[in-house]
Write a structure and sequence with these properties.
single chain, alpha/beta, six-stranded parallel sheet, 7 helices, about 30% helix, elongated
């Protein structure tokens, strides 16, 4: 009698996504034999760019909910490829992975390095950024995302140009104009924006990546000071990959 074919088990990989690197990783893992990849998106953007593979949208209900999801779906590997400033989900992921005994990797693009001519003012939080702003300028280009606008809502004197993917809601600064846009951005476009709106100070998070770096070059050329919010640390003990290819190698080694 003919023997039945032996099927290798499908290995489950969950990516906590929402970044360009997460989409690239999902596309690479979707072609790996014997791997089923699911990307979880927070659902904060109305029309997100969907990655390859399966997609789930919405929160898990804290670390306990994520640990339960990992167990119920027999996840073999968890990759935190969220935004470098999404520290809550990163720490939830570390706790959930430890609880469910699932290997965890953090995928973090490198941060930006100051270049000759940059006038950077590093701060540790959006609260600190708001505190130093009145001493640096009156026309602010704020590129820290709509979720953090409440930290600047009490500043009534400066005028803010806010750029975000979706329209922000209150609370926000009273003197504010919103530009709805999504990167990548060009150097010429950023030059024009700074010039047209007479920007004299830029506020940004150290999110890294080339897609949003042209604003730094434009500010350097124009002599505009930049308030740079430093990124929070990766949870202690979690290994880090700097680019999707390294994360794919980690999965291959882990799953054999």
């Amino acid at each position: 009698m003919p023997t039945s074919p032996v099927h290798e088990p499908v290995r489950q990989v969950l990516i906590l996504g929402g970044t360009t690197e997460a989409r690239r990783l999902a596309a690479a893992l979707a072609t790996e034999p014997g791997v089923r990849v699911t990307t979880s998106l927070a659902g904060r953007v109305a029309a997100p760019r969907l990655p390859a593979g399966d997609v789930r949208i919405g929160g898990f209900g804290g670390p306990e909910g994520l640990a339960r999801w990992l167990r119920e779906h027999a996840v073999d590997a968890l990759i935190d490829a969220t935004h470098p400033f999404a520290d809550t989900i990163s720490f939830n992921a570390a706790q959930a992975a430890a609880t469910a005994h699932v290997p965890l990797l953090a995928l973090r693009r490198p941060g930006w390095d100051a270049q000759p001519g940059d006038v950077w003012h590093p701060v540790r939080s959006l609260t600190e950024a708001a505190a130093v702003l009145p001493t640096l300028g009156d026309r602010v280009f704020l590129t820290t995302g709509r979720m953090g606008l409440a930290h600047f809502a009490h500043l009534t004197d400066p005028w803010f140009l806010v750029r975000s993917v979706d329209a922000p809601g209150p609370p926000h600064p009273p003197r504010m104009t919103t530009v709805l846009d999504r990167g990548p951005f060009t150097l010429e476009g950023e030059r024009d924006l700074l010039r047209r709106h007479r920007i004299d100070v830029l506020v940004t998070k150290d999110s890294g990546a080339a897609a949003t770096a042209p604003k730094l070059a434009a500010a350097r050329e124009a002599g505009v000071p930049v308030v740079v919010v430093q990124r929070p640390p990766v949870p202690e003990g979690v290994p880090v990959a700097a680019e999707p290819g390294a994360a794919v190698d980690w999965v291959r080694t882990l799953l054999g």
